[in-house]
Amino acid sequence: MAYRHFYFGFLSTKMSESNVEIRYILKFYYKNGTNAIQVAKKICDFYRSNAVSVRVAQNWFKRFQSDNFDVIDEPRFGPPVTDKVDEKVEQNRHIEVREKSWELTTEQF
C-alpha cells in the first residue's frame, strides 16, 4: 500500500509539530546572526542527536537569506513519488532498481 500525503490546515501529516518548532528555532538564531552549523549542534544537543542535520539548517538559512521567513512548507501538488514507483513496479516486476530510478528522476525535469 502506497503512503499517502495529506494536507490539513497548515500542517501535513508527514511533517510533525517538532519540525515546525525546529524551523522556528532556526529562524530565531538566523535573525540573531548565529552560524547554521552552531545552531544545528545546539538543536541536536537539546532535542536528539538527529533532530536536524547541518545541511538542513544551512538550507533553511539560505531560504531566510532570500527573505522567505515562512517556516511552513508550500503545498505540493500531484501524487507522491511513491505512487509512481508503485505504478512502474506493477507494470514490470522484473525491473532493475537503477533503471527505474533513472526513469523517475528524468520524468521530473
UniProtKB/TrEMBL annotation:
Protein name, entry field: Mos1 transposase HTH domain-containing protein
InterPro entries given in the database record: Mos1_HTH (IPR041426), Transposase-MT_Hybrid (IPR052709)
Protein's organism: Eumeta variegata
One family name in Pfam for this protein: HTH_48
GO annotation, cellular component aspect: condensed chromosome; nucleus; site of double-strand break
Ranges of residues in domain Mos1 transposase HTH: 20-68
GO biological process: DNA double-strand break processing; DNA integration; double-strand break repair via nonhomologous end joining; mitotic DNA integrity checkpoint signaling; replication fork processing
GO molecular-function term, one example from the UniProt record: double-stranded DNA binding
